[in-house]
Specification:
Number of helices: 11
Strand content: 15-25%
Number of strands: 16
Distance between the termini: 28 Å
Number of domains: 2
Radius of gyration: 21 Å
Shape: globular
CATH superfamily of the largest domain: P-loop containing nucleotide triphosphate hydrolases
Order of helices and strands: HEEEEHEEHEHEEEEHHEHEHEEHEHH
Structural class: alpha/beta
Helix content: 25-40%
Length: 347
Amino acid sequence: MDEAELRELLKSVEDPELGDDIVSLGLVNDVELDNGAARIDLALGAPFSPTETAIADRVREVIGDAAPDLAVDLSATVEREAEGDVLPGVQNVIAVASGKGGVGKSTVSVNLAAGLADRGARVGLFDADIYGPNVPRMLDAHERPEATEDERIIPPEKHGMKLMSMDFLLGEDDPVIWRGPMVHQTLTQLFEDVEWGDLDYLVVDLPPGTGDTQLTMLQTVPVTGAVIVTTPQGVAIDDARKGLEMFGRHETPVLGIVENMSSFKCPDCGSDHAIFGEGGGEEFAADVDMPFLGSIPLDPEIRQRGDEGRPAVLSDLDVGDAFRNFAANTANNQGIVHRRRVSESEE
């Protein structure tokens, strides 16, 4: 088998979401045969996403069937668009946003990050909610960051994630009373001065709204995808629409809409109760032609585990399944964004 035959063999591997084979889509960066090994570099940019994992497994399978004695060495490379990147080792930056407070955005951020880490990804979680940082409490993470000799910040780790939050740098219960320029300067410094290292995903928990923090991040950091959090309630949907428009104006890919607090299952009677309405998030996603990433139920376990620093996504409960499905869908959609961009650049 030569390299041309190997490329021809790879044409039997389909991308189920883009609807064509990986060679025709331009997703095969390089193919080499050397000393009984096939080295293949694929344009896959969402590590540990279900679809991209399946594509890689299928590549190994078709080569193994055709040439059982051929060792297969796979790598994945997607060229970054940003130059002078403040986060050179971070492959994906996923911003989690909402138009209003009280929709459980931080809970969603924590469980998304923990869910991606649980899948095997290298993950960081940045609590960018300057005025109300509560991610450390939700992860029971109270260790202060250390610093290198050149005064770069080493983020503490919890549940397999690297963490940074303004809460680490303030005294307990200290209020943050800052004007816009101070927010911009502090966030920029945190992004640039933290030793994130090599990460597959950096999840950024934004404060609610469309103010200085959001604009600073979109102007400073190469955001690869955004997640919009809402509840089924009409008021929350109205505000989520504003958040969606903000990302659109900055040409930031939106990975989809997640509906939090979708329903409450009564532990006494077993019935489901739509306390904040029903289906509003899914209807909103359909109305704006965005993917729907999933529904997260209103469950006391989420609150309890959040207060205790134990993300629900790491549990074997039904709510854990809901968060795991959401994390998988988010990673899959981040992969689609990358692969579609690569494919379109080949046309």
